[in-house]
Write a structure and sequence with these properties.
Layout: H1 9-15, H2 17-30, H3 41-58, H4 73-88, H5 93-101, H6 104-114, H7 119-162, E1 167-170, E2 173-179, H8 184-201, E3 205-212, H9 218-233, E4 237-241, H10 245-254, E5 262-264, H11 267-277
Parallel strand pairs: 2-3, 3-4, 4-5
Antiparallel strand pairs: 1-2
Length: about 280
Amino acid sequence: MPDSSGSKLPALLSRYQDRILTDWIAAQSDVGVLRADLMREAEIRRQSRSFLSHLTAATQNGVNFDIESEQWQDVRDMLTEVTNYRVDHGFTPTETATFILALKQPIFECLRDQYKNDPQTLVEEAWSATVLLDKLGLYTNDIYLRGREEIIQRQQQEMLELSTPVVQLWDRIVALPLIGTLDSSRAQIVMENLLEAVVESKAEIVIIDITGVPTVDTLVAQHLLKTAAAAKLMGAECIISGIRPQIAQTIVHLGVELPQVATKADLQSAFAHALRRTGVTFTGH
């Protein structure tokens, strides 16, 4: 591991900071990672200047270039800010890591000018800088992956919530049309959304329509029963509609019973049943 106690890098960064910053931004432009379409130049300059300032300060502390140590906290925070900004604005992992890796060229050129007559020191300092910048580049990659993972999880949660809309059909009657596979995660959101709708609309009847659910196995049946039981505890009667013939056969073969839960073949029949249960009548002409 490089040791800053004998390294010339801290002094080099302090002496050539303005030159390194200018050449670094130019190097980012040369390799095509500035992405003016995703980020304003003023922000690029601010991030580059701030990071270089933190890097210079961190190398002055006389301890090993251990970027996980407390002395490197400001550098890590700055890298986290830079990386998250790029994740949110659509930069690729390569473009994000290159923000750091593009710093090699201006540092190497300064080292070459400073130690052109001392090849051994030049090689040692170039290697020290390479190891340090590679570690910082890998750190940005880890932050980038965590950021993308958080975005994916948030989008999955939003998709789950969008896929479980609760619709008010009539006064005190709500319906939950389900489409697709009903797994444990989605079943939990179904129950939460339905119970919230029962409270908000003061519903007395809730219709769970499973016309769009391709298969019903024991697990799905258990989810439906739990949801119906929870609705009943809230004072609402539950009706399950959309039970097609093949699904009815599957439920029978599985030995699953649906006690105290009204079932209907389709949503229309369930709605008519719900209207009767709430005392609504229509007169025809």
